[in-house]
Amino acid sequence: TIQALQSSVDNLNNKITIAETRILLTEDKNRSRDALIQHLQSRLTVAVDRIEDLENQSRQNNLRILGFPEGAERGNPSASLSKVIPKLLDLDPSSPLDIERAYCSLEPHPPPDHRPRAFIVKLLRYFTRDKILKAAWEKGRTFWQDKRISFCPDLSKDLQQKRQRFSDVHHQLLGHGMFYPATLKVTYNGVTSAYTSPEEVSTFNVIYLIVPMGPHIRT
């Protein structure tokens, strides 16, 4: 009958209204959750950056030395390196390095035909670390018993990856006698710009713009 049909239509409309209401509530909840997720992601990014910064600050007096054969330290890395480093880099032997601690990186002992583990050296003073790095840079290639020895800062893995992204820019800067950071900051005509990716540097032709003027580049 018409009355039964009308009742069926009214019932269907009521169900549609309820369904629409539930859909709207679900969409509102999803929007709220999306906003919360974005907020948490933002806070997590900040927290990770702070942890990364703290980790690298804790390593600021550290050196990573590559190339020494396994066992070269003869059981006492601190004493051995205190004698070897000044000789390798022509440093004043009367000026102590004040090595707090030295140890092999925490990797499995490599087979004889594999690259030896790096030495991690913690120095008492940041100045000493910089002095060693500068001396190694100025000397160029350094050898000990026919083994090439390399000195570099002891950076976290994440920071190493960030620096590696600038490898092309790095070579261009080195060609002009400039060092490079993980985040490239350039002060030009009183304005400081920060570049976090090599694509940004290439897009704005930073190298070609700033080199003739002798910019200030810093971390």
Quick structural summary:
This protein is α+β, with helices and mostly antiparallel strands and 219 residues long. It is built from seven helices and eight strands.
3D architecture notes:
Helices cover 51% and strands 18% of the residues. With 219 residues, the chain is an alpha+beta fold. The chain folds into three domains: 1-58; 62-154, Alpha-Beta Plaits; 159-218, Rec A Protein, domain 2. A hairpin with a 2-residue loop joins strand 6 and strand 7 (191-195). The protein is elongated.
List descriptors:
219 residues, alpha+beta, Alpha-Beta Plaits, Rec A Protein, domain 2, 5-stranded antiparallel sheet, 3-stranded antiparallel sheet, 18% strand, disordered C terminus, coiled coil, L1 transposable element RRM domain-containing protein
